[in-house]
Amino acid sequence: MGLLDIFRRKEPEQRSAADPSWAALQSLSPGGVATNARLAENLSAVLACVEAVAGNIAALPVYVFRRTDEGRELDRAHPVMRLIRNGPNRHQTWSDFAQWLVASTLLRGNGLAEIVTDERGAVVELAPVPWEHVSVQLLPSGRLGYDISEITAIGGGTGRVRRLLDDEVLHLRDRSDDGLVGRSRLQRAASVVDQAVSLQNFAGSMWRNGINPSGVIEHPAHFKDDEDRKRFRDAFEQAYGGSNNAARAIVLEFGMQWKQLSVSPEDAELLASRRFTVEELARLYQVPPPIIGDLSHGTFTNAETMLRLFAMFTLAGWIKKIESEFARSVFSAASRATHELEIDFSGFLRGDPEVRWASHEIAVKNRILTPNEVRLKEGWNAREGGDDFQEIGAPNV
């Protein structure tokens, strides 16, 4: 960024009539119900999908590499690497920040953070900016202006509005319609979310207001009066009601019979509809249903395949987005030519030691990694002789 760019920021620019941020915030279903991130996260399937994607990406190791003539090497002194190690801001660790950034993008279509630099131009902080407090303007110069209502209190009070330009922010987008602002998946499939919310509200109302006895007692005669009926009901509930009396044998007299009530076809249809809604919401975020706890179609044989599909077709795309956005906005022009951010996808295998160590063995035997490089990946110190490639058939280190 040159000296002219610094002075150009101070020039007043008129707002364009096009404000792409408003379209990204509006989301109405065909039924006219406003769908937003807070409402959608009341659905356990949406919450689980967002946590599955954002949480797993936040758990992966992140490195900054310097490209050299021989290949590349880890640059521990790079400012971005210091943010990864020490935290991008005073309130968040790197995992917290990465999880927030991806979750905001999944729910709102956009994740925004201010890039704070020192007097030398080196990045010293990535400050999260809630998308609800941002209005994006397409300026006459062709640049994007981000008008931010600053937060002055934890409760959400807002103060003055200030403007950041597109080279002062890290902007992670979901798929965009105009190339400027991402569009939320909740907005694209508002009718799916609306249906899920309606089903959840209907089920809640049914359980709150409905009468759903588990069975009835049939009596061949009649009680003498209401007092006898009440006395019998109270005695029966005291003897067999509640969790402490579960599965006790029922003793009935005077020709009484217990008749179990099964789930009605209407209730069964409601449960099936809610299960299908979970599948639709999982499809919306490209998350296999077993990942979010829906095991209706999950088996031991396909669980590993679904995990692989989740890694390849869901996480891989978001990881590439993050790496590319860091290269575009966070790294300076000089650093962009020599450095790159990498989210280590192999960290996804940490929960599967058998697969992880099998891959290490293949890498060492085929002279792809040295034993010490494997030890470094596992967080262990190097050992003498471990920097040499191991010959096939030699003992493992």
The poorly predicted ranges are: 1-17
Arithmetic mean pLDDT = 79
Determine the strand fraction and express it as a percent band. Answer: 15-25%
> How many β strands by DSSP?
11
Radius of gyration: 29 Å
Counting structural domains, the number is 3
In order across it, which strands form the biggest sheet?
A: 2-1-11
Largest sheet, in brief, is: 3 strands, antiparallel
Structural class by secondary-structure content: alpha+beta
What is the CA–CA distance across the termini?
48 Å
Order of helices and strands: HHHHEEHHEEEEEEHHEHEHHHEHH
Number of helices: 14
- Can you give the helix content as a percent range? 40-55%
User: What best-fitting shape do the alpha-carbon axes yield?
Assistant: extended
Description:
- With 397 residues, this protein is α+β, with helices and mostly antiparallel strands.
- It folds into 3 domains: 296 residues, no CATH class; 47 residues; 46 residues, no CATH class.
- It has 14 helices and 11 strands.
- A 3-stranded antiparallel beta sheet has the order 2-1-11. Strands 4-3-8 form a 3-stranded antiparallel beta sheet. Strands 5-6-7 form a 3-stranded antiparallel beta sheet.
- Strand 3 and strand 4 form a beta hairpin.
- The protein is extended, with a radius of gyration of 29 Å.
- The two termini are 48 Å apart.
- The N terminus is likely disordered.
